[in-house]
Design goal:
alpha/beta; Rossmann fold; 3 domains; six-stranded mixed β-sheet; four-stranded parallel β-sheet; 35% helix; globular
């Protein structure tokens, strides 16, 4: 990712789904105007999801994802289908590509049911409309078997057909017909994506000063700030505030030089203990990780997960999960510091397991608690999917920032600046 690119977690993700050989990859190439995916007459050419970042008006920055055929076969095919289904967890708008010369198949209907079950906005692209044998009648216009239907049932079916008709479009990846209209249709169904929340703009008013405590140690990326720090600074500036960035070793002196106390102090969670000791009680204090969890819509459930942290027992297994992948170093927060702090806090004999990037276990039932990072690299949709999976399996989930605040005895203080949140 280039320095000024919109992060992937802030982009709307548009996934292209369908059977093998319906022209998904050709359509994606026509849609992006680039040779993003390999195209071949051989069924199953796309063996792994392929992603491309681009700008799509009126949506803005998006990620386009080309997926393997949902009808792939054999042991490898089953693995590819599984990966395709995983893409749904981070899909904001889905495009079902169907072959206009063949009509709708059962697995196409299964995909539509999945989109509707997961509440994913979708459009239907009937590809190969340039061919003479392409059907003129999309699925929404075909008559179903209404025998035995009640009046209400007929009306519900008609309403469903009308809704689906609005979502359909005839396209040709070969001739380019309908590509512009497809972009417009995706834009119409995707314009509601995104939370509209702010990271910190509701906490820092015009000309208010926020102090950002940013440790610069061997684990910090050389020559740059990590993404949550960049995003908080940008959000403060967008809302007319001022940001003063200091290391934890300079915080006390910085506070002493100010004529007016800051409206808010935001710290890296790892420095919570030292920063809370330095910052006077009357000055609001929170962390980047807590702000990011709120921004992604995860904080309320993750605060509830603190109850599980407080009631850990010997032999419990804890999953520590990060949304990105990076080279682990000595003193890594996820694999070293958090386990050490939690063992000291609980006084229990605990086991820890770890996941990172797109890897997140399907079966969470063995865990007493999941502790997730701020998820700056994940979309809100994927964060919500992970939270929902934990909830469905009865497993508590919390957050790096809330857990570190709790083990340092300052959780209530760390969420006090946030409206409508409490513990």
């Amino acid at each position: 990712m280039a320095l000024n690119d919109t992060p992937g977690g802030e982009r709307i993700h548009i996934g292209f789904f369908g059977r093998r050989n319906v022209g998904k990859s050709s359509l994606v190439n026509a849609f992006t105007g680039q040779e993003m995916s390999i195209v071949s007459e051989i069924r199953g050419t796309t063996t792994d999801p392929v992603s491309k970042s681009m700008e799509l008006l009126p949506l803005g920055p998006v990620v386009i994802i080309d997926t393997p055929g949902i009808d792939d076969e054999g042991p490898l095919g089953e693995m590819r289908v599984k990966r395709t289904r995983e893409i749904l967890r981070r899909t904001d708008v889905a495009v079902l590509v169907m072959d206009g010369t063949e009509g709708m198949k059962s697995c196409d209907g299964d995909l539509l049911s999945l989109f509707e079950e997961k509440k994913i906005p979708y459009v239907i692209a009937w590809n190969k409309c340039d061919l003479p044998e392409a059907s003129e009648g999309p699925v929404s216009q075909r008559k179903g078997d209404s025998e035995g239907e009640t009046g209400q049932g007929r009306q519900e079916r008609q309403d469903g057909l009308e809704d689906r008709k609005r979502r359909e479009i005839r396209v040709s990846a070969k001739s380019g017909e309908g590509i512009y209209e497809l972009k417009e249709l995706i834009g119409a169904f995707g314009k509601g994506s995104g939370s509209g929340r702010t990271l910190v703009g509701d906490l820092v008013g015009e000309m208010d000063l926020a102090i950002l405590v940013i440790p610069i140690d061997f684990a910090a990326p050389r020559g740059r700030l990590i993404l949550p720090q960049q995003q908080v600074i940008r959000d403060i500036l967008e809302h007319g505030g001022q940001a003063l960035c200091v290391k934890e070793s300079e915080l006390e002196r910085a506070l002493q030089t100010l004529a007016v106390p800051p409206s808010l102090v935001i710290t890296d969670s790892q420095a919570f203990r030292e920063v809370s000791r330095i910052v006077p009680k009357e000055i609001p204090l929170t962390s980047f990780s807590i702000l990011m969890a709120r921004y992604k819509g995860a904080l309320r459930q993750q605060l509830q997960g603190i109850a599980a942290l407080r009631s850990l027992r010997d032999g419990d297994i804890i999953l520590i999960s990060e949304g990105c992948t990076h080279h682990r170093q000595c003193g890594d927060i996820g694999t070293e510091k958090l386990p050490k702090w939690i063992r000291a806090y609980s006084g229990k004999e605990l086991s820890f397991e770890f996941s990172s990037g797109n890897s997140f276990p399907e079966d969470l039932s063995k865990y007493a608690l999941i502790i997730h990072c701020g998820a700056c690299m994940l979309t809100e949709k994927e964060v919500s999917s992970r939270n929902e999976r934990a909830y469905a399996q009865g497993v508590a989930i919390s957050n790096y920032g809330t857990v570190i605040a709790e083990v340092n005895g300052i959780l209530e203080r760390s969420i006090a600046p946030l409206p409508d949140f409490s513990i």
